[in-house]
Amino acid sequence: MQPDTKCVHAGYTPGNGEPRNIPIIQSTTFRYESGEAMGALFDLEAEGYFYTRLQNPTNDRVAAKIAALEGGTAAMLTASGQAANFYAVFNIASCGDHVIASSAIYGGTFNLFAVTMARMGIQFTFVDPDCSPAELEAAFRPNTKAVFGESIANPALTVLDFDKFAAAAHAHGVPLIVDNTFPTPIHCRPFEYGADIVTHSTTKYMDGHANAVGGAIVDSGKFDWTKYPDKFPGLCTPDESYHGVTYTQRFGLAGAYITKATAQLMRDFGSIPSPQNAYYLNIGLETLGLRMEKHCSNAQAVAKFLAAHPKVAWVRYPGLEGDPYHALAEKYMPQGTCGVISFGVKGGRAAAQTFMAGLKLASIATHVADAKTCVLHPASTTHRQMSDQQLEAAGVSPDLVRLSVGIEDPADLIEDVEQALAQV
Ligand SMILES: *Cc1c(COP(=O)(O)O)cnc(C)c1O
To answer: Do 139 and 238 fall within a single domain?
Structure first.
């Protein structure tokens, strides 16, 4: 199936007389005829559902659709993108281990790694995504367990150099984990470029309507953990907390990583989405291909308009010719990138504020990647306590406006931006 067909059909095939939509199995528990029948499930001897914290049929069908879209062998849903990135890393790194991450990543993920996971004893080295292969090489340590980056970084809009990051990770016998939230598998499939694990904040384009917070983890099934049993004992030696199962032996490379994340991390941390939220996510997924095409063509038109406007100081959009990441975008996401643009208004902080106040259609929101165009001025909201100098140091200039272009008619969006710029 092609991606648009997978969006509609993958993960669930109703039988004769069964519902065409994925049923919402809103039940915590599942009934069995005998203790023995249920015991077999606990021993992982038989397949079946028993408690929704571990697995639920609605969630599993939606996860299977995302696995199909990414071209992976197994996937799981989580209650948020934060939970997805935490599980993805913690599944293979624990106290005393080290992970390399691109410095151009979502602020929430940066804090999760640099503060919270550091407190759990996992050390992170952040590297400039544009570093040389030698600089990347120098970041590795004997206890490095993974390399992490975002395919298109939120909000920096840098495009990951997959070849460089995958080659370095594999030369050191560790997987490359890629957060693919912004381009989605419609525009970029990281497994085709050497990534081993993909994560998502499904809250963004996958849901696409600002309905439900959620996340997902997908395994390519390609990384051979058994070649490095000393590095990945959690996957290659018996799990005493789960009936002595050795995940790679019992579930093979296709299933080991996700089964471990479910059986251990979801069991113990419990960030499971409700089946109702998984249902909302699936409705969004059905139109993902259509929407991504529209988000991108709209963003391209708005970015071009902004780039030609005399009151605009600069524009960053990887789809724009002349953007520093245009060549990488052409290489890894030739059909399009995402709908998010950042740009500066001449006149700095005050001019950006006047522009924002003048918008009529675009709403001011701390969100990106849904149907409705929204806009954020970090210097007067999320970063408002910082001085102009501190903002520059954080890579957020005082004039920076982040525009998440929705799926409205582009003429209306351009008209809105034009009249707001006229007020500056
Ligand atoms: C929003 C976002 C996250 C966090 O996801 P939540 O669903 O808000 O928990 C992680 N990564 C990226 C790239 C994001 O944009």
So the answer is: yes
**For a substitution probing ligand 1, which of 85, 102, 109, 340 has the most ligand atoms within 8 Å of its CB?**
109
DSSP secondary structure code for residue 51 in this structure: B
pTM: 0.96
Q: Which ligand 1 atom minimizes the distance to the CA of 85?
A: 10
**234 and 294, same domain (yes or no):** no
CA 84/CA 228 separation, integer angstroms: 24
Query: What is d(CA 217, CA 63) in angstroms, rounded to the nearest whole number?
Result: 8
Residue whose CB lies within 8 A of the most ligand 1 atoms, among 77, 148, 158, 204, for a mutation test: 204
Is 106 touching ligand 1 by the criterion CB < 6 Å? Answer: yes
Nearest to 162 by CA among 113, 129, 209: 129
Nearest ligand 1 atom, CA 214: 7
Q: Given the CA of residue 153, which atom of ligand 1 is nearest to it?
A: 13
Is any ligand 1 atom within 6 A of the Cβ of residue 203? yes
Shared-domain flag, residues 386 and 309: yes
pLDDT in tens, 127-150: 999 999 999 999 999 999 999 999
Instruction: Compute the distance between CA of residue 80 and CA of residue 75 in angstroms, rounded to an integer.
Output: 14
The closest of 334, 304, 397 to 159, measured between CA atoms, is: 334
Q: 364 and 255, same structural domain?
A: no
- Distance from the CA of 226 to the center of ligand 1, in angstroms? 31
- Per the structure, the complete domain to which residue 415 belongs is given by 289-421
Q: What confidence tens digit (pLDDT) does each residue in 408-421 have? A: 999 999 999 999 99
In the block, tokens 């598998």 appear at 185
Number of domains present in the structure of the chain: 2
What's 28's domain CATH number? 3.40.640.10
pLDDT in tens, 40-68: 887 778 889 999 999 999 999 999 999 99
* pLDDT higher than threshold 90 for residue 396: no
pLDDT of 208: 97
Is pLDDT at 125 greater than 90 in this prediction?
yes
pLDDT above 70 for 395: no
Average pLDDT of span 281-302: 98
371 lines ligand 1 (CB under 6 A): no
- Of 176, 180, 173, the C-alpha closest to 142 is 173
Check pocket membership of 102 for ligand 1, CB cut-off 6 A: no
The amino acid sitting at 254 is A
Residue 65, ligand 1, Cβ within 6 A = no
Q: What is the mean pLDDT of residues 153-162?
A: 93
